[in-house]
Amino acid sequence: MSWVDVAWPGWVEVHLSESDGSIATVTDKAPVLDADGSLTPAVKLPVELQIPCDVLGRTTWPDGKRSATIRLRSGLEDSTGCGTFSVGEDDIISCS
Questions:
Q1: By the 8 A CB rule, do 11 and 5 touch?
Q2: Over the Cα atoms of the chain, what is R_g?
Q3: Is 9 part of a structural domain of the chain?
Q4: What are the pLDDT digits (tens) for 9-43?
Q5: Residue 60 counted as domain residue
Q6: Domain count, the chain
Q7: Residue 48: φ, ψ to 5°
Q8: CA-CA distance, 14 to 46, in Å (whole number)?
Q9: Is residue 96 part of a domain?
Q10: Rounded to a whole number, what is the largest CA-CA distance in the chain?
Q11: Over the stretch 58-78, which tens digit does the pLDDT of each residue have?
């Protein structure tokens, strides 16, 4: 994660690790990517963020590796316009 612009509301670039080893780049306003408001320019980087998403499905690969297909909320997309990603199941945190 890095700051693109610290002027209010602040724009950040986040790298999302996909299950195939690729990295997706998502850039948006800090409040959109950080729902709890803890992300400020004073925070020491890198940090982990919990980005709201919907789990669309889960897959178990022949080698036993498990992944989840997710769609980011708030219309978030990566730099190629994609909003759906395959991530490691361990990267998903259930929130009530």
A1: yes
A2: 14
A3: yes
A4: 889 999 999 999 999 999 999 888 887 777 888 88
A5: yes
A6: 1
A7: -95, 140
A8: 10
A9: no
A10: 47
A11: 999 898 899 999 999 999 999
